[in-house]
Amino acid sequence: MELIGNPITPEYEDLKSLVLSDDFSWYYERNSKDDFNFYSHVFLERPHFDRRFPAITSPHMELANTVINQIFDYNNLNANYIFRYNANAVHPWFYNDATTAPHEDHEYEHTNLLVYLTDAGGDTITTGGNHTPIEDDVIIFKGEHCHKLPLRDRRVVLIVTYN
């Protein structure tokens, strides 16, 4: 796991304001692995076995793409292929040690990039260590991971998987 830089550009601020606004569209997701439920906004839907390419599903993908490219460029990261781009929101859970089930986002090699849009807590736990997030942090990691549920406020993250 590695903490990388966030250039916090005007476009980033615009995307963050949009995602955190009352007008942003969220969709309820039920996770059958651990009965953990959350809200999601899919910018770029992951490839499926019957469709071997991602699909743009959000009218905000152009802005989201600009922001992720700025983060990649700022950190000199090479991304040959973006598999998925999501915003996820998790509401507080009042049990200190509650975590999501350990998982990998895809069955093929990929890197995860997380951008924390809020300062709600909810550590990210990977095989490479734990990260206690603060607002605007950006981390990258590979492999199995999970996260603690926030004890206060709403935890909102951007998730990009790429190779």
Which structural traits does this protein have?
single chain; alpha+beta; Jelly Rolls; 8-stranded antiparallel β-sheet; 3-stranded antiparallel β-sheet; 15% helix; 34% strand
Task: Give the structure's gist in a few sentences.
The protein is an alpha+beta fold and 163 residues long. Helices cover 15% and strands 34% of the residues. The chain has 2 helices and 11 strands; from the N terminus they run βαβββαβββββββ.
User: What is the overall shape?
Assistant: globular
Question: What is the residue-averaged pLDDT?
Answer: 88
Helical content (DSSP H or I, runs of 4+): 10-25%
* Major sheet summary line: 8 strands, antiparallel
- Uncertain stretches of 5 or more adjacent residues: none
- Number of DSSP strands? 11
What structural class results from the helix and strand content? alpha+beta
Q: Which sequence of SSEs, written as H and E, runs from N to C?
A: EHEEEHEEEEEEE
Distance between the termini: 16 Å
For the record, what is the CATH homologous superfamily label? Jelly Rolls
Put simply, the count of helices is 2
Q: What CATH architecture would you give? A: Sandwich
Structural Rg: 15 Å
Name the CATH class: Mainly Beta
Counting structural domains, the number is 1
Looking at the structure, the CATH topology is Jelly Rolls
Beta fraction: 25-35%
